[in-house]
Design a protein that fits this description.
Oligomer: heterodimer
CATH architecture of the largest domain in chain B: 2-Layer Sandwich
Mean pLDDT of chain B: 86
Largest sheet of chain A: 5 strands, parallel
Protein name (chain B): histidine kinase
Structural class of chain B: alpha+beta
Strand order of the largest sheet of chain A: 2-1-3-4-5
Largest interface: A-B, 36 and 39 residues
Structural class of chain A: alpha/beta
Number of strands of chain B: 7
Catalytic activity (chain B): ATP + protein L-histidine = ADP + protein N-phospho-L-histidine
Number of helices of chain B: 10
CATH superfamily of the largest domain in chain A: Response regulator
CATH superfamily of the largest domain in chain B: Histidine kinase-like ATPase, C-terminal domain
Distance between the termini of chain A: 33 Å
Helix content of chain A: 25-40%
Enzyme class (chain B): transferase
Radius of gyration of chain B: 35 Å
Main location (chain B): membrane
Low-confidence stretches of chain B: none
CATH topology of the largest domain in chain B: Heat Shock Protein 90
Pfam family, one (chain B): HATPase_c
CATH class of the largest domain in chain B: Alpha Beta
Number of domains of chain B: 3
Largest sheet of chain B: 5 strands, mixed
Helix content of chain B: 55-70%
Mean pLDDT of chain A: 85
């Protein structure tokens, strides 16, 4: 299990990050004493460090140099400063990457994953893979496979994203805006018509797994995944 | 010379009157002839001219100094000559200059402190913003959408404050590199996806393959964000597009056109849209116009060496053109 050390003085942010990272099977610890960061780092011996720039006593750059003297583990800065020079400063002080506030969980997680992968080999250890199961229907987000019992069906990226969102909130309504936001891609953005097309495709894939009416349209609101199918 | 003559003219007039009066007194007394008075007049006039010449030459640079106004603060200072008048004027100016400089310095210091404070404060505000952002992430439904929208507005407001404060120290804070225009545009549009989706207005990007520009990514992204915010704010109908055209213009200069299908800007307002705090007709009928967006766009593009142009047709839309 990978251990992540969080050096950040905002309690709220630390709590949220810890909760989120625990869900993906990471062990986390936050700094208690901002004068003894070095000592706490040595005791915890983390695989990766999340580091804020503005800290009490010394700034993040200082602690980054201190940690570099002890370890070569990935260090990711989390800072409100988004200037190029700030990022250059961070990298020159030994950081590996830079995340600007406010940030998305997904971006933080993606960066953490990729640095762990690079530093400790591909997908070694740690429960970092994500799969969702709703009443026997299983979605493998990494491999783009939807399965139910022994039946399996391949998904496109966009279909997987839609199902991911619907299954996470199974039983409740997911708005169209939310889905549009989720599947918005840098390369091709999606308007309402395209979303309709994708939803139809998702329905087809579901029916290929013998799930009819699983994905319901809620007029004027959005879509809802109803677990009205039995265990296969 | 002119100033000197004007300055000395009362003396000359008095002198001539005096000459006339004395000549007259002697004539009425009947003691002397015309020739003697003329001779005396000539002698004393020569004396006067000699005095004037001496005065003029000893104070020449002083008079020149009075006539030529300094172009900048560095040019100020007194006359170089050492006549008593020049000397005391120099002392006076030097003293005034010092007082003025002290004052200016203290204001500059206060301003710098203020900018520093604003910077710190904005960055400080970003942590609570991230916390709220994380809390509502993964949550759906009207209240969370509303909070998300307000959060976006706060973020945008803070960015505007930050970039306005930074404009003065631009020289320390930019990094020019070769960028792929399409990638920059896509990055910004996808960052603003919430706004696009909420308004049901979508971007249409047509950029020449591999079109490269030389710019600072952060500042340019801020400029594009401002343009997108404007385009979306003034597009009232759903299902419209904001077009991004990237092409090679005259003399091989890359050009980016951002065209919306919104309400347009009345011709009377068009020449002033780049002025600070100018909101115009649209600003009064739409919320949240600060009149700073396009002003900042113009200023930043100016500093980056890009040219900005705008054209608009009421009810048809507005096009902003950036020439790199």
């Amino acid at each position: 299990m990978f251990k992540i050390f969080i050096i950040e003085d905002d309690r709220g942010l630390v709590m949220l990050l810890q909760d989120y990272l625990h869900k993906f099977g990471y062990e986390t610890q936050a700094v208690h004493d901002f004068e003894a960061v070095r000592m706490e780092f040595e005791q915890f011996a983390p695989h990766l460090v999340l580091l804020d720039v503005n800290l009490p006593k010394f700034d993040g750059y200082y602690w980054c140099r201190q940690i570099r003297g002890l370890s070569t583990c990935p260090i990711l800065f989390i800072s409100a400063r988004e200037g190029k020079m700030d990022q250059v400063m961070a990298l020159e002080n030994g950081a590996d990457d830079y995340i600007t506030k406010p940030f998305d969980y997904e971006i933080a997680l993606a960066k953490i994953k990729s640095h762990l992968r690079r530093a400790y080999g591909s997908y070694a250890g740690g429960g970092t893979e994500r799969s969702l199961t709703v009443a026997g229907l299983m979605l493998d987000v990494e491999r783009l496979v939807l399965s139910r019992g022994s039946a399996k069906i391949d998904l496109s990226h966009t279909e997987a994203k839609i199902l991911d969102e619907l299954m996470q909130k199974a039983g409740t309504v997911v708005t169209r805006d939310r889905l549009l936001e989720k599947i918005w891609d840098d390369q091709a953005f999606v308007d309402d018509n395209t979303l309709n097309v994708y939803v139809t495709r998702v329905r087809k894939k579901l029916s290929a797994l013998d799930i009819a009416d699983g994905l319901q349209t809620v007029r004027g609101q959005g879509y809802r995944l109803c677990e009205n199918w039995g265990e296969a | 010379m002119k100033l000197f003559l004007r300055e000395q003219s009362p003396l000359i007039v008095i002198y001539l009157a005096q000459l006339l009066m004395i000549t007259l007194v002697y004539r009425l007394d009947g003691s002397s002839g015309v020739n003697v008075s003329l001779y005396a007049g000539l002698l004393s006039t020569c004396l006067l001219l000699a005095y004037l010449a001496y005065r003029y030459f000893s104070n020449r640079s002083f008079y020149e100094r009075l006539l030529n106004l300094p172009a900048s603060l560095d040019d100020s200072g007194g006359p170089a000559q050492s006549s008593p008048l020049a000397e005391s004027l120099r002392r006076l100016l030097a003293h005034q200059f010092r007082l003025y400089q002290n004052d200016l310095h203290s204001y500059r210091h206060k301003l710098e402190e203020h900018i520093h404070f604003i910077n710190q404060w904005v960055h400080g505000m970003k942590t609570p913003l991230s916390v709220i952002h994380l809390i509502i992430q993964g949550k759906d439904g009207p209240p969370f959408t509303a909070i998300g929208d307000e959060l976006d507005r706060l973020k945008k407001g803070l960015d505007t404050v930050l970039y306005t404060a930074r404009l003065d120290t631009f020289e320390h804070d930019f990094y020019v590199e070769r960028l792929e225009l399409a990638a920059v545009v896509r990055g910004v549009t996808s960052e603003q996806k919430r706004l696009f989706i909420r308004k049901r207005v979508f971007p249409a990007i047509t950029v020449e393959n591999g079109l490269l520009i030389t710019s600072d990514e952060k500042w340019l992204s801020f400029v594009l964000t401002q343009l997108i915010t404007n385009a979306l704010r003034y597009t009232v109908e759903e299902g419209r597009f904001v077009h991004f055209y990237g092409y090679t213009g005259e003399q091989g200069r890359p050009v980016l056109e951002v065209r919306d299908e919104g309400v347009g800007i009345p011709p009377g307002d068009l020449p002033r849209v780049f002025d600070a705090y100018f909101t115009g007709v649209n600003g009064r009928s739409f919320q949240e116009s600060t009149g700073m967006g396009l002003y900042l766009v113009k200023q930043i593009c100016g500093k980056l060496g890009h040219e900005v142009g705008i054209s608009s047709e009421v009810e048809k839309g507005t096009t902003v053109r950036i020439m790199f």
